[in-house]
């Protein structure tokens, strides 16, 4: 059977990570279609549509530095790399939902854009503090993947030099900002609309970090600064004995953000009723992001009866005016003058009248509506002063696990636990961009075992050399990434021993950043003759089918932990990825007389799985005996409803 249908090759664009510029333009077209002329933005029209919101002045508020434009551009440049699976270094490869990714987090963040955009509930960032040491994360913007491959020795290192970021260089703050800025921009894209981010820092860059984070996340989405007792005994040099570090907290969307309270030990209550003990808290929402302008349904009056006492201390309330009743609305914000709203809508308030919400007369004679708070927990506090948050505690935890001091001053597990409880819950995904020794994964294992939840993690760590850690080097650890992987293994054993009945996920899949598995996506532009000769085989020599499958999955935008099934169909190995979202047959030969049976087998499997989204099928381009075999395969699949057929 011959057909006019042709099988398309995977294009360069399909082989890249998400093109954020195109995504931004598509979003802008939806909002302002009239601002586009022949596919390009007409900025004069866009300015008119935005009205008075456009700042055309020469002087604008904000932090600027040499290289900021490049730093922004590098965050928008797609990656042509891939993440190669390493089952041999993983734990529970077939079942775990946790990921450990070894590589430069800038490239890794780009590669995660398609699969994880808007899916991460909590991000923790503990970047290198700007203390004048060499940055392992270089700002060679021309090709960050190439820089990484040379740094890790996968490509010729000739001519590659990394310099120290000393304060006398004149670019002390600039170098650090250029490193962090694009990573924060890419990280923001991964956050869910209700997601939160915690960023650790010391006083060398806390001001600059606040400035760029306000720009990237939006100043309205700034929640606060934690002051952490990192050095209880103080560092006694200079004019102040330094005892603390900071962590900045931002959310993706102040209105949608969701956080959770921290359990309190030995909580004391001031009041009690027939339902138990309680304290009281005003019913109005003190977050100005929720106000009369955007939540009009939460702005309505209660009516207090000053002569009707409830539970000895409180006054009866209702939603309808009566004789002698006192009308009570939420107060105005004293600082911003914004009209607050209630935390409860009318329907919920009806059920709680004089039960869980009551009237209260304050000492100054004003009346308030208050809620009976019965839970033994509270929102996270900004001052974390306990000694358990010290970096020495973090060092001791690692030393106890390994039996030797192999890594200095990681963040203590208690600090990460605090953030995990406040920022995540059951089923959430937590991302740590600078994982180090994997304190976050350790804390997550313990937290899941404690509360029975199933949080998942993605740890990202550069394979930094252990030269500065002689004990680690002696113990056989070549990189910080190796320390992190072993810590997760040891922590899992420890938690399982402490919680023998716990059935949490204590595994992790290891992936490593590398160049693409497919030649067509990154040809050798300096040797076109060789490229043409090699064009008959598009896959890089030495790469496995599993390498290719995970790259297809990543570039298709499918979660890296989805199941991959294999079947023998007509003597060929066929893979189903993500319950039929993607099929792949990477056999080296497909003859004309094998096409029909292979296509029928794939179609039968496809009908059985009933995938929720459009299915894509990929074949090895060089496998087909001739163009007729390839064309026939495409025709059969397309005539049966599968239109996305590609070759590589």
Structure characteristics:
648 residues; alpha/beta; Rossmann fold; 6-stranded mixed β-sheet; 30% helix; globular
Main sheet strand line-up: 4-26-5-25-24-6-7-11-8-23
Report how far apart the termini are: 23 Å
Helix content: 25-40%
The backbone outline, from C-alpha atoms, is globular
Largest sheet: 10 strands, mixed
Provide the CATH top-level class of the largest domain. Answer: Alpha Beta
Question: What this model shows, in words?
Answer:
This protein is α/β, with parallel strands linked by helices. It has three domains: about 90-110 and about 115-135 and about 165-260 and about 380-505, Rossmann fold (3-Layer(aba) Sandwich), CATH 3.40.50.150; about 270-375, no CATH class; about 525-645, no CATH class. The protein contains 17 helices and 31 strands. A ten-stranded mixed sheet has the order 4-26-5-25-24-6-7-11-8-23, with helices on both faces. The chain has a six-stranded mixed sheet with strand order 1-31-30-29-28-27, sandwiched between helices. α11 packs parallel to α13 (about 480-500) and α16 (about 590-610) runs parallel beside α17 (about 625-640). The radius of gyration is 29 Å and the shape is globular. The chain starts with 7 loop residues before the first strand and ends with a strand.
